[in-house]
Sequence to fold (453 residues):
Amino acid sequence: MKVNRAFAFVRAIPMGGIFMMFVGCTSHPNDIKAVSDSLEHRTGYGLNTKPAKKLAWPPGVAIKDGLTEDELVALALWNNAAFQETLVDLQLSRADLIQAGMLPNPTLWMLFPVGIKPLELLLRYPLEAFWLRADRVESAEQDVQRTAQRLVQNGLDVIRDARLASAELTLAKQRLDYADNTAHLAANVAELTQARLNAGDATELEVANAKVDAKQAEEQRLRWQHDVEIANQRLRTLVGLGLEHWPRIIKPSPLLSNIPAESKALVEEALKARPDLYAAELNLAAMGERIGLARAEVFTITAILSTKDVNGQTVSGPGLDIALPIFNQNQGGVAQAKARFEKAARSYTTLRDRIVLEVREAFTRLQQAHASLNQWQTEILPPLNEAVKNAEKAYGHGNVSYLFVLEAQRKSLDAQLKAVAAEADLRRVRAELERSIGRSLDHPSIAFTIPKP
Fold:
């Protein structure tokens, strides 16, 4: 009989009120489309917004005719393992947002009717969850936004890394071509020097030096051949094709034509558009709000609904359990929140100064690389190429030896190697500058101001 009464008491509890306690949980869809849209707006490259358990091919990417640098960047954003791992952070932050919106469960305290002890029920619910919920949800929403902005910055880093790896591969292949030509020239010089020795026109020392030069050129050729393979494997892994077919043809992108004239506008744009700086700004705001949350957590009020069986009758009544903040006013929690706010403020300043330095340094290096490449292409290479032609003509008329022609060709090859190195520097600093300002230089210089929530 007493057990039946217990079930009757449970049914007598106002279930509508309990249901209202559970209402109010917040959910957010797991979607990276916003990150993809931001990256595409900045660079022209988007992300794969659909879950993929294997290699995913971006639209328009075909491996049959080789891969261009743009296709390599697209593949890296879709398949780079480390970047795909960081994208899961967005799911974790969204899960934290759902959890922040959940209301706590009520607790039921029950004394069973044993002997002369009457049945007693006590339902408890923390009321502070209602006024703290809004702040907790807002903090979790800012964390979602902060995570999304961090992922956009990670995407910019992946684009930069793909362009750098492509530039390194292009330079390695050009160096290998130079090494092949240099080794061929050094072998010819050694043969001619040996022929001069046989004719009594050279010494043993000259022959020995020529042979050493030929061996050094061959060693350099083999070393740069391995460098090409290493650069190939690094780029292959970066774009996610480590276990897939890798084409022999990799086409570098055209050199940058629109060189920025000054850095002031670039610095201002970077301070408005860099997603990691906006993430730091969101973190600073969240740390400020957590100071108030730490103070509000001092006040805890628990609603109580007591139900007893008194002489066969059900007696119910509400009550409150209020924690009096006399001794513990969460001083430690408030102090921690203030310290985190100060650290977030200093981190924001540090990041802002680093962004300014990155943009100015990359801009200066871009100007230097562009000027150096222009000098090699217009002032140094043309006279050397003309000298090779003149040496070949002179040799045809019998005025100089063939060794003189080979020496002119060697100087021209040395200059060409330095010119391709300058070209690689231009590609590298372009990638660094684009990452520093948060957009591609091929895009129009529009305001990338991030909308505030």
User: Anything to note?
Assistant: The first strand starts at residue 67 and ends at 68. The CA atoms of residues 200 and 313 lie 131 Å apart.
